[in-house]
Amino acid sequence: MTAKLEHLIDQGVGRIPADIVLKGGHFFDLVTGELVQSDIAIGGDRIVGTCGSYSGETEIDISGKIVVPGFIDTHLHIESSLVTPHEFDRCVLPYGVTTVICDPHEIANVLGKDGIEFFLASALETIMDIRVQLSSCVPATHLETSGADLPVESLLPYRDHPKVIGLAEFMNFPGVIHKDPVCMAKLNAFQGGHIDGHAPLLSGNDLNGYLSTGIRTEHECTSAVEALEKIRKGMHILVREGSVSKDLYALMPIITERLSPYLALCTDDRNPLDIAEQGHLDYMIRTAIAAGVEPLAIYRAASISAARAFGLRDRGLVAPGWRADLVVVDSLENCRAEMVFSAGRHVTDALFATRKPVSPVGLDSVKARPVNAAHFGVPVSEGETPVIGVMPGKIITEHRRYRLPARGNQTTADLGNDIIKVAVIERHGKNGNHANGFVQGFGLKKGAIASTVGHDSHNICVVGVSEDDMALAANRLGEIKGGFVVVEDGKVTGEIALPVAGLMSLEPYEAVRDTLHHLRKAAYALGTTLEEPFLQVAFLPLPVIPHLKISDKGMVDVDRFALISSRLS
Prior knowledge:
The protein is an alpha/beta fold. 26% of the residues lie in helices and 25% in strands. Helix 3 (105-111) crosses helix 4 (113-123) and helix 12 (281-290) runs antiparallel to helix 13 (295-302).
C-alpha cells in the first residue's frame, strides 16, 4: 500500500527525504523523446519527483545509466513458459517486465474454473503485476475434446476481481460474424470493458463486423499490410515475438513514432530457454533498434502505449504520480536491465522470498488410455493423402496433399519428402478418442516426440517415424503426469515433467531451463530442423475448419489441424 498522499506531497516538494532516490543518471522522456538528466525520487509505490535534485532515505548512484518505464507484455499465456506464475515472476521480472496481461486459456481448457482461480490467487502474490483476461474460448472449438467448459455464467463471478481486465482473446471470429449465441452472450456481458481480439487475416467488411462488438486489440497480425488496415479501423496492434510465432521483423515497418501510440509488444508464448538465451521484451526492443526502428517508437510500444491500450492509467512514464515501475538500463540500444523496480520495490531475491505460495492444481489431469504401435496405423486410401505442412516461425500450417507409400494395407511415412506420422490422443478421460495423420516439415529421421501441451484443448500430440516409439512416448506422458518426451530406438532420451495440468513444472525456472537444453539436444538427435520442435508439436493440434467461409464476399484459408482433431469431437 502506498504512503498517505500528504506524505507523498512532502516528498515531492522536497520537504522530507524520499524513500528511494536514483541519482546521477538520465531518464527517457517518452513524451518528448529526450534523455533528461535528473534524480528520480520514489515514495511508496510511485514516483514523487523528477527534473530536479532530491535526497532520500536510500540513495542509489546510477551515473551513466538510463531509466525507462517498466515493460508491459500485453498478451501471453504464462503456461507456455512451462513454469507456474510464481516462477514466471522470478524468471521474467529481472528483465524489466513489470506488468503482464495474461490469458489463462491453456489451464482453463484443462481445468476450467480451478485453473482461472489458480491464476487469480497467484496474481495476488507475485511481485510483478499480473493482470488476467478471462478466457473466452473454453472449449476453444467443438472440433476437439476439451477438459472443461466455461459458459458466460462461469466467467461473470470473476469480472470484478481486482486483477481482471476483461475478456481474453476472442478467437472464434467466425462465431462473432455469424452471431453465434454463445459468442454473443459473452460479448454482451463484457460490453464497456476490455475485449481482446484474435482474428488472423480477417479484413474488409468481415473485420468491420468483428470490431463492431467493441474488440480493440489484436496480436495475430503477420504482415504490415494486415496491421495497417486494423490500425486504420481503430485496433491497437500487439506486435508479437514468441518462441514459435515471430512477427517482429514483418511488422517493423509500422513501428514508427507516428504509429507508436497504437502499438504494444507481446510474446504470446515464450519458454525459459529462449528467455535465458535471448531475453524477453528487452530482446524485442534491442532487436528492433538494431534493425533501424526509432528508440522512441519501440519504448513507447513497450510501456505507455501498452498501458493506455488496456486502461492501466497509472503506469508507463517516468513522471511524478506515476507507478514506480522502472528499469535501469545500460543504454537504449542494448536495453540490458541492470536494476528493476516494481511498484517502488527494488527487485531482489529477498523480495521474491516475501511472496506467499499458492497450492498447485491439476496434478492428475492426464487420464489418457495406454496405446501401442497398432493404434497409430493409417489405412491405405485411394489418391493423395492430406498432409499438414509446418511453416517454421509460424503457428499456422498449410493443407498439403501427397501420394504416400504403403506397406500392406497401411499408409507409411515418406522420409524422402520429410513426411512423418502425427497423432492426437484424448487425455482428459472423457472418450478416449484417437486420430492419426501425417505432417511435413519436422525433419525427423527416427524416433518420436510427444507432448501434453497441445493447443488449445491440450490433448496428447505425438509425431514420429516409428509407431513403437510413438506409443512409448505417449504412454510415458501418463507416467510423468504430463510434459514433453523424446524417444529414440525404444528408449526415452529426454523428458520434462509438467504435472500442473499437464502444462507447467513444479520446479524452479532454472531447472526447467536446464532440462530444456537437454530436451532440445535429444530432439535434434532425431534430425529435426525446427528451432522450437516442442512448441511446434504443441501448436499442431490447433483445430480450425479448413477453407472456412466467412461471408459471401470472400474465403479465408485458415486450415491447421481439422484433418485430425475434428475426429476427436
